[in-house]
């Protein structure tokens, strides 16, 4: 199977999608932005052995490759519109490509985003996706808007992906059903696109939790020139993680990464609106801390005592 046969068989779909004048098949795609909207663009790369294990099912990998990019759009409150796919493959394996494209397009269709181009080549397995979305002019959520006194929130549940990784590493063991649950969290994250859109005009800042809550909240603090206190034992987690030793539970929740939830801030006056956004998007959120003027991130236990810690988030060149 040649390169262009591969593209036509697994990735070309019918034209005529909203905002797409011309998709795959030319040197460039032609897109038509909605009047009054601004475009938001983000790129993520997944490398085998670094971002995913060789044992992951291709359908789940197709899902995750797009999900991690959609999570960036969610953090900015954007509506997904189009994406490109650059794919390096060791070989043209029809069975693998069938599963990968199935998972990719199932998530794409669920969020109304369209594949409009990209590239394929032979090499070690590497997946790079660029997503494009839009939001009303001036309405995109950014990391730079947090103010002292704002509440800090997080969506969904944290830590299961890291717990699954520890099972793969052999440092812990879980019964089969529990392992399947946390493995699904690692391999099939659900981007919080609807929540991000519902938080436009409500949240003062936002980021997606991809490298770990400490690091990703830290980006908000840095960009906003503020600090924060977090009540670490309020972090939402699954029953599987809740049953683990406290030290492991905190490690997974604070520094685990691969969660693809949203961490965001909002003024106390917006508490009802935040809950309304959660209900509108069918996504649970919980208030876990407070933005402060003093720089730095302080972790508080259930008694309000500051915890000393050495937690750090994922860094591609340090981990």
Q: Main traits of this protein?
A:
319 residues, alpha+beta, 60s Ribosomal Protein L30, Chain: A, Phosphoribosyl-aminoimidazole Synthetase, Chain A, domain 2, 2 domains, 6-stranded mixed sheet, 4-stranded mixed sheet, 10 helices, 12 strands, metal-binding, magnesium, thiamine biosynthesis, kinase
Describe the protein in words.
The chain is α+β, with helices and mostly antiparallel strands. It folds into two domains: 3-136, 2-Layer Sandwich (60s Ribosomal Protein L30, Chain: A), CATH 3.30.1330; 151-300, Phosphoribosyl-aminoimidazole Synthetase, Chain A, domain 2 (Alpha-Beta Complex), CATH 3.90.650.10. 34% of the residues lie in helices and 25% in strands. The protein has ten helices and twelve strands. The strands form three sheets. Strands 8-10-7-11-9-12 form a six-stranded mixed β-sheet, with helices on both faces. A four-stranded mixed β-sheet has the order 3-6-4-5, covered by helices on one side. It has a two-stranded antiparallel sheet with strand order 1-2. β4, α3 (94-111) and β5 (114-122) form a beta-alpha-beta unit. α2 (58-75) runs parallel beside α3 (94-111) and α4 packs across α9. Mg(2+) 3 binds at residues 27, 72, 208. InterPro entries: PurM-like_C_dom, PurM-like_C_sf, PurM-like_N, PurM-like_N_sf, ThiL-like.
């Amino acid at each position: 199977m040649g390169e262009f046969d591969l593209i036509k068989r697994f990735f070309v779909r019918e034209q005529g999608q909203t905002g797409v004048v011309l998709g795959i098949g030319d040197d460039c795609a032609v897109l038509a932005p909605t009047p009054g909207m601004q475009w938001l663009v983000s790129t993520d790369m997944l490398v085998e052995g670094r971002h995913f294990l060789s044992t992951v099912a291709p359908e789940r990998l197709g899902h995750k490759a797009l999900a991690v990019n959609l999570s960036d759009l969610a953090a900015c409150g954007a509506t997904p519109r189009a994406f490109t796919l650059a794919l390096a493959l060791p070989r043209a394996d029809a069975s693998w490509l069938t599963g990968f494209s199935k998972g990719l397009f199932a998530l794409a269709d669920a969020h109304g985003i369209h594949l409009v181009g990209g590239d394929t080549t032979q090499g070690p397995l590497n997946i790079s996706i660029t997503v494009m979305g839009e939001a009303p002019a001036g309405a995109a959520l950014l990391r730079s808007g947090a103010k002292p006194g704002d509440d800090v929130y997080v969506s969904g549940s944290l830590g299961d992906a890291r717990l699954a990784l520890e099972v793969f590493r052999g440092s812990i063991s879980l019964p089969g059903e529990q392992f399947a649950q946390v493995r699904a969290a690692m391999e099939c994250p659900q981007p919080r696109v609807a929540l991000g859109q519902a938080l436009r005009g409500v949240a003062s800042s936002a980021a997606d939790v991809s490298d770990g809550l400490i690091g990703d909240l830290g980006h908000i603090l840095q960009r906003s020139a503020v600090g924060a206190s977090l009540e670490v034992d309020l972090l939402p987690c699954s029953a599987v993680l809740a049953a683990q030793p406290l030290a492991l539970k905190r490690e997974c929740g604070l520094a685990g990464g691969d969660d693809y939830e949203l961490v965001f801030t909002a003024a106390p006056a917006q508490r009802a609106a935040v809950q309304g956004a959660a209900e509108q998007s069918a996504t649970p959120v919980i208030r876990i801390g407070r933005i402060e003027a003093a720089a730095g991130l302080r972790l508080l236990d259930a008694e309000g005592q500051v915890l000393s810690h050495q937690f750090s988030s994922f860094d591609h060149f340090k981990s």
